[in-house]
Each structure stands twice: as C-alpha cells, then as structure tokens.
Amino acid sequence: MFHVTVYVNSAKEYIGFQTSGHAGYAPEGKDIVCAAASVLTINTINAIDQFTGDRAILEAEQTEGYISYRIDGEVSADAELLLKSMVLGLTEMSHDEDYAQYIDLTFEEV
C-alpha cells in the first residue's frame, strides 16, 4: 500500500508530507496507482522549487517509495496552494472505489 501522511500546522496550512511503500495495484512498471501518486507528489516538490521562494527539507529513498518533504520556515500562499492541489488529487484517489485499497492518506498536525 502507498502511504501518504500530510503535515498540517496549527494554522491548518499544509506544510509538507511523507510517502512510503508501493501501491501494489499491478506489477512494477504497470502500477497506475503508484505512478499517479508519484507524479502528484514529485510534481508538487518540483513546482514549489520552481515557482516559489520557499525552502524545503527533502529526503528520499526510491526503492522504498520514501519521500519526506517539509517546507522550512513560513509557507507561502503559492506553496500551500500547490500542496492543496496535491492533496486534492490524492484524496480523490483514496476515495475512488477502484483505488482506495491501494492508497492510505492521513493528516498529522505538527
């Protein structure tokens, strides 16, 4: 299962996330759930880096599907919007009856 924990601060702003595991929907290279979740998370990291001035702390380990990403300091409105967009996509996947059993989405206040 692909696990995603979204970090939320006391102001209810998204400030980062952690992923781990693989969806297991299909064999490696054919797993559309893992591919979709990976695109959402990696594109969010790249977009924040490219389009905002926010600094972040990133750790990743590809074989385990592990990513730890957290904005370092105050979160800009642009970065939070990009994180909200990622959460929207992941939420839709986690509520889809065809994919819900392959993705676990949780929220953690930090």
UniProtKB/TrEMBL annotation:
InterPro entries: Peptidase_Prp, Peptidase_Prp_sf
A Pfam family matched in the record: Peptidase_Prp
Keyword Hydrolase: yes
Biological process terms in GO annotation: proteolysis
GO molecular function: peptidase activity
Keywords: Hydrolase, Protease, Ribosome biogenesis, Thiol protease
Record bears the keyword Protease: yes
Record-stated family: Belongs to the Prp family.
Protein's UniProt name: Ribosomal processing cysteine protease Prp
Organism: Dorea hominis
Organism classification: Bacteria, Bacillati, Bacillota, Clostridia, Lachnospirales
